[in-house]
Amino acid sequence: MTDIPRDHPRYQSLVTREMLVKGVRDGITSMQGLIAQGRGEAFDYLLGEKTTVSALGAEKAAVAMLLLARNPVVSVNGNAAALAAPEMVRLAKAVNAGVEVNLFHRTEERVGKIAAVLRASGCERLYGEHPDRLIPGLSHDRAKASSEGIFTADVVLVPLEDGDRCEALVKMDKKVIVVDLNPLSRSARTATVTIVDNIVRAIPNMLKLAGEMKSLSRAELEAIVKEFGNEATLSAALDAMMETVQSSKQS
Ligand code: PTJ
Hints:
Elements: H1 11-25, H2 31-47, H3 53-68, E1 72-76, H4 78-94, E2 98-101, H5 108-120, E3 126-127, E4 133-134, E5 144-145, E6 155-159, H6 163-171, E7 175-179, H7 186-190, E8 193-195, H8 199-213, H9 218-227, H10 230-250
Parallel strand pairs: 1-2, 1-6, 2-3, 6-7, 7-8
Antiparallel strand pairs: 4-5
Helix pairs in contact: 1-2, 1-4, 3-8, 3-9, 3-10, 4-5, 4-8
Ligand PTJ binds at residues 30, 32-33, 36-37, 39-40, 43, 77-79, 103-105, 160, 162, 179-182, 185, 198-199.
């Protein structure tokens, strides 16, 4: 990795880039994943590279939804594996979820490498290496899913998800939680819960919340989910970004 000076004002963002470059070199992340990260970074810059109050609210609703689920599944792609594999495995354990490797630019080699990284992080209930079902309405390899995993899940956490697949999962009557820094994306607008936050902050936040919330009753968790509104959350994210623009125009 390039040596990033710790006192650089955008240290975390630069480290995140390095993690993705390493992901590509290790055969975990796709080249397209670097472009996706670049787009995400632009939105994160506007958010001030921090978790907003509304994003934290979405993270709380998402954890409540996962804790209430019958068969929750956490989906991992090449970017998520490079940026947050151990944290995603720990989150899955905390909410009693399975983990599925699910790729947009699918190659069996990359699936195998991501599965190895997840197993090395302690993942026991892992799907995606031998998908036996197709998500209806999707062409191409991105439709592949496992019958015990995403295909039958009632709640799925899909960070950095493609818009088409998000829509197809919602059409299957699943509750879909996405982590997406772009509040205007099709995934962000279609998902049940959209977390407009960087995955490197969102998953650790959710892990902490899962620890705090696991003692709540079903009624208390249901109340948290009921209170959440996705449209209001997206609107709050856009407001936070506009505020950054306005304040930089004034200074
Ligand atoms: O590993 P694969 O083959 O499954 O491919 C993964 C990518 C991400 C390349 C693929 O799913 C893709 O092309 O995604 P999109 O359609 O570019 O969408 C990615 C979304 O994630 C965009 O809206 C980005 O703004 C957002 N994003 C990028 N980096 C981050 C992010 N959101 C949160 N945290 C990030 N670090």
